[in-house]
């Protein structure tokens, strides 16, 4: 098939940078309306036309996939008069040259297994908090040394922020390309100005300028990561435990440096459908003081009768959060960089916001199991030592 596609003249300057990039990861961080999905669909189709092979189309969810990336790819193929067949049930598009494009919802990354892709597009990746989706996609591209194009707005701090920081620091495998909404001449300027007047500054910078800023509502914005190391035998060790079953059971292991009085979160567990027998087998390997949700009396008693040092935790939410905030601010609490699930929760654990985006005295009860375990352990073990009067969640200790 011979056909000339005049795509280049349609591309804006920042979109041309994406097409020119030859690095393994192309990280396109753009504000609202910078044409991320539009760009990604055309980029992956060009790749599939250039070389017959397998290609990945990744979106945060099946619903979003069908509404955006999947829809845009089919639209472009029709506009460019590229013959193709589609399987809507299995989300597979087969081009006339034999290339296959696989639609992958981020909540089912296993669909990528067995695919040796030559390139992939991960659209609106910032909405996905699970690093495993990125890691799986990157691994499936290794066989062909393929490119992964990540297009997104910086919705919140998660694994993507870490990737962004690596790019800013000069990682040779990542090409960081950014664009502000105002750089798209087709986007109404008056809408950008209106948003700037109406939105909090941090939110406007994220959604219209493509800049990572710390959301006002984060509970623990001052956390610090450290490289993992072997915990010395003489250090005090404790655990926090948040019981669950359908809801995940969460355990966080912490150790304290006696010289600096700094706590280190060094091990984590977060798993659903974990029985008390399963939990006992895990915890008995190291019988250290474990502070657990006091409302789960049966679980507490069962583990204690079996010889574990399990104690009811102080469950005062706001004073406990204030205490942990103070430890982070004073650099007396640090997190091992290997604790992916803890970091994921730290990046999303937020205060509820009012209509004016101001934080309320209530946390969002979602994806907070390890945060509860963290508070149980530290506030119960050391909170009584804190010389402070609780006033509000924003006050330092």
Provide a descriptive summary of the structure in words.
With 397 residues, this protein is an alpha/beta fold. The protein has two domains: 8-209, P-loop containing nucleotide triphosphate hydrolases (Rossmann fold), CATH 3.40.50; 225-385, Nucleotidyltransferase, domain 5, CATH 3.30.420. Helix content is 33%, strand content 23%. It is built from 13 helices and 17 strands. An eight-stranded mixed β-sheet has the order 3-4-5-2-6-7-1-8, sandwiched between helices. Strands 9-15-12-11-10-13-14 form a seven-stranded mixed β-sheet. Helix 2 packs across helix 4 (69-79) and helix 11 packs across helix 13. The radius of gyration is 24 Å and the shape is globular. The N and C termini lie far apart (70 Å). Mean pLDDT is 90; it is low at 387-397.
């Amino acid at each position: 098939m011979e056909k000339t596609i005049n795509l280049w003249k349609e591309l804006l300057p920042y979109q041309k940078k994406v097409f020119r990039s030859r690095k393994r990861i192309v990280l396109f961080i753009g504000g609202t309306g910078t044409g991320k999905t539009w760009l990604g669909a055309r980029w992956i189709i060009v790749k599939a036309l250039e070389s017959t092979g397998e290609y990945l189309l990744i979106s945060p969810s099946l619903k979003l996939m069908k509404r955006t990336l999947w829809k845009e790819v089919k639209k472009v193929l029709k506009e460019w008069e590229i013959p193709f067949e589609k399987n809507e049930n299995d989300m597979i598009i087969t081009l006339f040259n034999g290339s296959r494009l696989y639609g992958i919802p981020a909540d089912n990354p296993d669909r990528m297994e067995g695919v040796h892709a030559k390139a992939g597009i991960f659209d609106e990746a910032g909405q996905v908090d699970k690093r495993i989706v990125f890691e799986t996609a990157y691994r499936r591209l290794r066989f062909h040394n393929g490119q992964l194009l990540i297009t997104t707005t910086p919705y919140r701090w998660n694994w993507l922020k870490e990737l962004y920081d690596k790019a800013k620091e000069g990682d040779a495998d990542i090409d960081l390309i950014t664009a502000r909404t105002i750089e798209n001449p087709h986007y109404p300027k008056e809408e950008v100005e209106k948003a700037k007047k109406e939105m909090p500054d941090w939110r406007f910078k994220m959604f219209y300028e493509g800049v990572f800023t710390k959301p006002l509502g984060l509970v623990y914005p001052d956390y610090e990561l450290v490289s993992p190391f072997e915990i010395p035998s003489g250090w005090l060790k404790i655990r926090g435990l948040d019981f669950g079953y359908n809801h995940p059971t969460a355990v966080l292991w912490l150790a304290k440096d006696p010289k600096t009085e700094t706590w280190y979160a060094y091990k984590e567990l977060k798993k659903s459908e974990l029985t008390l027998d399963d939990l006992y087998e895990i915890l008995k390997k190291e019988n250290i003081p474990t502070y657990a949700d006091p409302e789960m009396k049966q679980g507490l008693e069962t583990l204690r009768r079996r010889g574990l040092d399990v104690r009811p935790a102080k469950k005062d939410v706001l004073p406990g959060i204030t205490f942990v905030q103070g430890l982070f601010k004073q650099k007396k609490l640090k997190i091992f960089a290997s604790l992916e699930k803890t970091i994921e929760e730290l990046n999303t654990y937020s205060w509820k916001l009012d209509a004016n985006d101001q934080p309320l005295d209530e946390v969002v009860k979602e994806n907070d199991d390890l945060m509860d375990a963290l508070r149980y352990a530290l506030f119960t073990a050391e909170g009584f030592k804190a010389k402070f009067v609780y006033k509000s969640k924003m006050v330092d200790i």
